[in-house]
Amino acid sequence: MSARRMVRLEEIDFPNAHFWAYFLSTSYPNALLEETDQTMYDIVGQVLPVDVRWTDAFTQYYDGVIEERDGYLDAPTTLETPLDGGDTLKIEFHPGDTLFFLGDTELGSTGPHHRTGTLPYNRLRSLLSLPDGPLLFQLLLPMARLTPEEAVELRPLLGEHFTAMGIPPPSHPALTECLISGLAD
Question: Looking at the whole model, is its pTM more than 0.70?
Fold first, then answer.
């Protein structure tokens, strides 16, 4: 049995375009830009380097993992980091799914049997005041439950984060609307 590969926040910070291409394109299973019929994967692939070899190495993908193990590993690539109030965020990056936990409680997942919309947006917004707040916010955003009013507030914040990820500003509106479509009530 192999040891769990632990990643630190510094490894997946905003300048890591490979991570954000992978994360954005796989973490919003309900996102669709209706006017162009584009998914997050479609849009992200136009603006960030979607590198399958990097993603396979990061998630520890191997031929047969989907068929043999439904895309799950016993020791997945994992991020664990403290949050405010004594909570710990844990994200497991499996080849076929991403699982999100607060402490020992599973918040949800973004894979084929996804469960999202489990975290109130105001809880997520409270993370922004932490030292790594914008990064933590963006990592937990796939679990957010978003009202139309909160979507209005989220738009400019996404623009700031996309710029930090190296995404060109002309791509922000399509990416923003697609992402929000995957979170809206």
Answer: yes
